[in-house]
Amino acid sequence: MAIDPKTVESDRVLILDYGSQYTHLITRRIRALSVFSLCISGTSSLKTVADHKPRVVILSGGPHSVHTPGSPSFPDGFVEWAESNGVFVLGICYGLQLIVQRLGGEVRVGEKQEYGRMQIEVEKALGLFGSKNCGDTQSVWMSHGDEAAKLPQGFEVVARSKQGAVAAIQNPLRRFYGLQYHPEVTHSPEGMETLRYFLFDVCGVKASWKMENVLDEEIKVINETVGPDEHVICALSGGVDSTVAAMLVHKAIGDRLHCIFVDNGLLRYKERERVMETFERDLHLPVTCVDATDQFLSELKGVDDPEKKRKIIGKEFICIFDDFAHELEQKLGRKPSYLVQGTLYPDVIESCPPPGSGSTHSHTIKSHHNVGGLPKDMKLKLIEPLKLLFKDEVRQLGKILNVPEGFLKRHPFPGPGLAVRVIGDVTLGNYLDTLRLVDEIFIQSIKDAGLYDVIWQAFAVFLPVRTVGVQGDQRTHGHAIALRAVTSEDGMTADWYPFEGKFLADVSQKICNSVRGVNRVSYDITSKPPSTIEWE
């Protein structure tokens, strides 16, 4: 249970996703303009699209060609529906080519394919470029092999690339527009200005998406869903997401919320003590702490596959929540009906297959234990009040709910905990304790250097290899550790943080001198994509 996006009292921008790695960025950029945006599959039915009652529909980019049989497209009747309901449509990259092809134009393989930074020139200071002058140029990010060769009747070119390819088109009478480049990425420096002008000046959208409205709407939905005598369990992980979710539900139903914090044996260094102190001292939340270390680790023994680890952890959590609900039933005379989780929008996106894959289950990036890792026979109904929000929006909501700023700035920590930071079997040797000590040294060094708040996420990874080293004039055969630190806006894409060499050298020396058995430290300089943030 979460806010129904169809009930959001705001002008809505609906993004039809055709598989571009940048699609989520469109959603983020538009929300940054205080406009509610939502991303759904590009092959959704016309009824699904219409039920959202969007003011604007954006057709995303994607890896497909409109010439490929079975390539994804908007539903039949979409053009007529948009025109009869006054809906504005913007196609980006592949989305532009869909518009051209479906409305009677021609798309062909480009003579000169365009990838990366390109210069475009404004030919007509109209529509998308109404704030520009003819002849103005700007740098944009292109990623296409096909190009529009012949436009549908009534369309005109408003910008071209320096190579002469169509870069932007429009038909104001039909309210259809198209950009061959990606305005949502930072490599298109004037892209945000173009999106802003399109939404506010061309489409007349109002900037009315505010976190205060989200809070009021969520409380309303929770009170309408949870009966006056019903009780709710909240699974607290100690992270920002579940804590903000708990504070929100507590504000709605008060003492009928019962929080549980599970020590699954996969927590960071002294995490249990630190988190429980924060809950009691600063947040005043009623929390029951359950030590389930043996239960989790016994189930994980011998398991190497990261996806299996996530599924096992999700199942064990639910077993514990069911037991907790039974105990509460004995105490209250009524069994709780709902479970609160801090699921975020990126969790939902990453647990789904890519549009156009033709699959309902394969190609999953990863199953989040609170999305794809839940058993189908779970007895508790879910309340996920943050399911439509990105991480920075959750932090804004937490600030409104008076969650301490220091807590809100905590780096994300995965639901499966250190199970996805020990590569392979987490129960071997002293792998978990070693990783905890290394991670603590790394994070404390980052804090001491004043870098914690500028980094999105930082952590250590235990590698399943032994390496040769020399310590104390003796040959050693010790463990290898990887360090990871990234910057990001929402966790959907990320860049590795460029620490100074001296900082890394000092951290490596501290780790090798302080943590027994570790003789090699490496630093991960891979961005997302191509990798994920977590190693797994």
UniProtKB/TrEMBL annotation:
<dbReference type="Pfam" id="PF00117">
    <property type="entry name" value="GATase"/>
</dbReference>
<dbReference type="InterPro" id="IPR017926">
    <property type="entry name" value="GATASE"/>
</dbReference>
<dbReference type="InterPro" id="IPR004739">
    <property type="entry name" value="GMP_synth_GATase"/>
</dbReference>
<dbReference type="GO" id="GO:0005829">
    <property type="term" value="C:cytosol"/>
</dbReference>
<keyword id="KW-0332">GMP biosynthesis</keyword>
<dbReference type="InterPro" id="IPR014729">
    <property type="entry name" value="Rossmann-like_a/b/a_fold"/>
</dbReference>
<keyword id="KW-0808">Transferase</keyword>
<dbReference type="GO" id="GO:0016740">
    <property type="term" value="F:transferase activity"/>
</dbReference>
<dbReference type="Pfam" id="PF00958">
    <property type="entry name" value="GMP_synt_C"/>
</dbReference>
<keyword id="KW-0436">Ligase</keyword>
<feature type="binding site">
    <location>
        <begin position="237"/>
        <end position="243"/>
    </location>
    <ligand>
        <name>ATP</name>
    </ligand>
</feature>
<comment type="function">
    <text>Catalyzes the conversion of xanthine monophosphate (XMP) to GMP in the presence of glutamine and ATP through an adenyl-XMP intermediate.</text>
</comment>
<feature type="domain" description="GMPS ATP-PPase">
    <location>
        <begin position="209"/>
        <end position="410"/>
    </location>
</feature>
<protein>
    <recommendedName>
        <fullName>GMP synthase [glutamine-hydrolyzing]</fullName>
        <ecNumber>6.3.5.2</ecNumber>
    </recommendedName>
</protein>
<dbReference type="InterPro" id="IPR029062">
    <property type="entry name" value="Class_I_gatase-like"/>
</dbReference>
<dbReference type="InterPro" id="IPR025777">
    <property type="entry name" value="GMPS_ATP_PPase_dom"/>
</dbReference>
<dbReference type="GO" id="GO:0003921">
    <property type="term" value="F:GMP synthase activity"/>
</dbReference>
<keyword id="KW-0547">Nucleotide-binding</keyword>
<keyword id="KW-0067">ATP-binding</keyword>
<keyword id="KW-0658">Purine biosynthesis</keyword>
<dbReference type="GO" id="GO:0005524">
    <property type="term" value="F:ATP binding"/>
</dbReference>
<comment type="pathway">
    <text>Purine metabolism; GMP biosynthesis; GMP from XMP (L-Gln route): step 1/1.</text>
</comment>
<dbReference type="InterPro" id="IPR022955">
    <property type="entry name" value="GMP_synthase"/>
</dbReference>
<keyword id="KW-0315">Glutamine amidotransferase</keyword>
<dbReference type="InterPro" id="IPR001674">
    <property type="entry name" value="GMP_synth_C"/>
</dbReference>
